[in-house]
Amino acid sequence: MSDGGGDGNSAYGHTAFRRARSHFTDRITADGRDGWPVSGHRYRLVVSRACPWASRAVISRRLLGLEDTLSLAITDPVQDDRSWRFGLDPGGRDPVLGIRYLAEAYERREPGHPGGVSVPAVVDVPSGKLVTNDYQQLTLDLATEWTALHRPGAPDLYPERLRDEIDAVMADVYEDVNNGVYRAGFADGQDVYEEACAGVFRRLELLTPRLARQRYLVGDTLTEADIRLFTTLVRFDAVYHGHFKCNRWKLTENEVLWAYARDLFQTPGFGDTVDFDHIKRHYYRVHAGINPTRIVPLGPDLAGWHTPHRREELGGCPFGDGTPPGPVPAGEEVPAAGRARRPSPVTENMTEKE
Question: Which residue ranges have biased composition labelled Low complexity (predicted)?
Answer without folding.
Answer: 329-338
